[in-house]
Amino acid sequence: MDYRIQGREHLQQLWTDIYNTEGKPDWSHIIPYYDDAIYFRDSVQELRGIDEFTAMTERLIARSENLRMKVRNTAQEGPTIFLEWEMSLSFKKYPESSIYGSSRVTLNDAGKIIEQRDYYDIWGDIFDNIPKFGTAYRKFMKKKFG
Question: Fold for domain 8-145?
């Protein structure tokens, strides 16, 4: 099988297929599209290599319930693809939360994902769904950083 990303529509379909409407997500079909030397970074972690990346996806599966993602917009400039998304997830004792973010994905010459950088405000989006706490968090952020 040819594991090269064919463009932004292809990547959007692969990402959409990770998240089903019920149950746990499954990355097994998209992992072969990542280069063995993948560099990944988000608001929580930075890692290198396909083994670390795969382990991260397995931790996310184990921790969350009902993980869903909607890709809202995509754009591509050369080997760089941008995706704007909304991820809905729930943890064991907390209400479902939506996290809004974007990802910058860079393809190597072989068409595999060599770098992925995710941008999102995980705490703000989760705290917004906790009564009173979300309001206090936003006031704090505005006072200190706004």
Answer: Nuclear Transport Factor 2; Chain: A, (3.10.450)
